[in-house]
Structures
1.
Amino acid sequence: ASEITGTVVKRLVDRGAHVKAGQVLLELRADQTSAQLDQARAALRQLVEQSRPQAAAALAQAKVQVEQAERDLKRAQGVFDAGGGSAQQLEQAQTALRNARQQRDSAQAAYNAVAPGGATLAMDGATEILLPVNEQSIGNLQIGQQAQCVADAYPDRSFAAQVSFLAPQVDRTTGTLEVRLRVPSPPAWLKQDMTVSADIVTAQRRNTLVVPNDALRSVNGDQATVLVLRGGRAQAQQVKLGLQGLTLTQVVSGLSSGESVLAGNSVAPGERVQLQTLPLPSAAASSAASGNDLPMPGR
């Protein structure tokens, strides 16, 4: 611990870096006459570095939950319209969407309370994206991995980034790891403090067989069960899994291309089923467009 106190004016090493005895780590300014100004700056720094990123992370998560609830409702509506689901299941999906939207609105209000106002000076230098990643998704992250980013303000435009920093410890309050993405060629419309989503590709497989995650049952490591439509009835089939993404999972063995897999939990093995083809989760569309790759995104 330092024997003196003061305001940090320059940090010469990053968190997690290896240092040597006698190496200068920080430059401090200990001007007693500007103590009150230093305290005000520290409070502002805390707002910018902690309160706002946490509120932004909560808002981003709430938006993801709304999108998932909308997909679930669309799927439930399709099954109900085809006569394969109950009104209770449809009502549950509608209720889940309402609750997700309420949580999103609350998160938006919390973010607005700490959002910047008035004039803001943007720092010059390299462009970075601060990305809080759930600790359950950090096992495959590595420095140098490529990412595709989309800003909420421009959802039809994307730009490339690269993982440049992984924090040495997880935030115990949020259960997330701070990940920084370097943007080598930032677009002109990218502004400071924009809300940005990122897909980090940690592994890929070309021309592989995949199923929606909601079709997997009794998952145990790389083993799972799916229901396959055979002879007009649902039949349980053991499968071996490979890469697992946010919405799709690779099937290494147990299934053949062209077989009809039943999603959801409303059908039991042995029941007679009338097949209705539903669209795959949205992540599948972008995979098919890029050669049927299976990306492994992190948010």
2.
Amino acid sequence: MPEVLRRRNRLSSRQSQIVVGLAVLSGVLGALAGCHPTQTAGVDPVLTGLAAALVTWAGATSVWWVAGGAGAVIAVAQPASWQLWVALAVCIVMSGVGATRESAAVTRSLCAAAIAQLALRLDLRSPFGLSAALAAVTMGAIVLSGLRRRSAETRRTARIIGLGALAFSGLSLLLLVIAGLAARGNITKAVENATSGLRAMRAGNPEAASEDLAAGASALSGARSIVRSPLTWPAKLVPVLGQHVHSAERLVDAAQDTAQVVSRAIAGVDVKNVKVNAGVVDLTAIERLQLPLETTRDAVVALNLAVQSSRSGWLVDPLGSRLRSLSRETAKADLQARNAVEAARLAPALLGQGTKRVWLVLFTTPAEARGLGGFPGNWAEITTQNGRITITRSGTVISLINGGDNKDGRIVHAPKDYLDRYGKYGAGEDGAPMSRMFWNNITLSPDGPTVAEVAADLYLQSGGQQVDGVVVADPYALQAILTLTGPLTRAGTETTLTPTNIVPYLLIDQYRVYAGSTADRKDALQDVSNQAIQALLAKDLPSPVVIARAFGKPLASGHLMFWSLHPEDQAAIRALGISGTMPAPESDGFSYTLNNSGPNKLDTFASRSLTYEASVNERSGAVEATATITIKNTLTDPDTLPEDVSGNKRGAPKGSIRSLITAYSPLQVLSVEINGQRTAWSEETELGWRAYSGLITVPPGDEIVITIRLRGKVSVVGGYSWLTKPQPLSAPNNVRALVRFRHGKRSIRHSGPLEVTAHLTS
């Protein structure tokens, strides 16, 4: 006999059989959807299969507009994909069913099955949980609507089953809460000990780190027996609850073992034995550190993987927040451990183990901006041999400008894009010799290795010798030196420089002190840089951890850069992120540089910000973007500064920032506007980027807004990403990036100061 239903719907025996068959097929397909509501092997396919089958069976009697509405929701949520067309088809078919007022049980069931398959395959990554929420709402609406039109006996059976499932879930939750309360103390202690241990490791305190991590491992052992007890078994069958159980299991299983290994490995790392006495580094002690550092690195990497694999967006507090905090610490420790190994391998070579290494050090000042950072005012030649560091020569850049046997015949050997871009600024075009004054512009490029190679070659042509590497340092690097050596007083003066005042002194104050005496000022700069290095080499320095902490920020932010002629050393330098490399874009990106063209010393007063907004088709790689650069001149009274600092040779008002600005992007520029007025910029290529350049003038107290509209296609083979390399000047570089995707509802967002090269993904 057919089942008599409310509101005109009637299922014949034949229709009931077809609907059951469709439900079985939909259940099989649902089991293959790859959803993980519990993360329990074997359980997730069963749950998703049963859910798909139930939706298909109940959908035979659901209200037409419920399935049609579900299709519309999915079409809006997942536009321009195969889901869109299937969802729209469901909307059209169910609208037809509603118009004809037919039961059409098989058609309704087919449409419900389609909705179930679409819902189980939604992939909306932002915000987290949106896919699951939409799947639950659309599928749940169809089930409830369909059950309301079934017989009283069917509805009664459904209520009994639903109440049973609800009771089981409630009991599972209760047992999980009991287990959680029992394990809470151990897990809390374990996370706190592991966090403090990792922080102690990064602070260079191996004894405390080893002790805390051992305590954390012990606490995890206590939690392990509770987490794997029968109290947690039922929860593994319930969505979301199962996520918590499995995360806790992974954490206590893997983290206990790796925390113990890390504890033992750190105990073998004794950086106190590495001595830096009066310019001599103990290379033997560094070599003895390499094996324990490698063991520590491997253990920390394993711990980080264990913690990261334990994370899940479904985890609620307090477990979720504690795991997020611990994962941040393990990620930092992972990076530090990898860098420590690289540094220990690299240091003996840089310090001349078994040989002599010669280094050219360029001292730059961002008061007069160049693409790499600042104008090179002074230099020094440093020799390292078997750990001993000595200064062999030094001078101002004038000595290099006038140095060598063939002052007017020096040739810049550099990549073609470097010569094409900077030939007109003195590098020499079409094989012509460089201008003598090009030493002033040698740092025009934003790429550290390119600048270093050119500098090493020109140093040899300017009276120097063949060098093994180049170091670029600015006042922030000298500031780091003074944090280790203490204050220094310039000979013959009463000027005492400290970590607090050395940067403003070198960027602004010394120009006032030596107003009208450029020669004395340049001698002063040379004296300060040499005196700082001599003080560094004369003292017994603290442990390598303290030294690394002092130089960490200038190294990371490009205020201190290294380059080596030897490829194996340069690979390690680049891996450590201290080469000042301007990487080519793997996908999208945007950077910009200022090159002072006053010439003057006012770039200390340049306040900068970048806003990058883009719409991306992450399937085709098509991008439409707008970059907005704001440059503000914070100098309000230029008369307080000498003429050679605040003046210019371009006819601009005194105190004006005058720069050649270059924007780097893989996209084609459609238009450039400055304060709303359209302007034309030149287009060239450099370092794998399109380089767009134009001159700007910012009077004192004023600001300009540059709006650049771009369009093009980028590679999305490895997924869309956005790259930016801030120019290391004195003022912070504020960046706001908002990249929206046309599919998937994902986005990339960043807002705030940015001092390091950033590679942002969704």
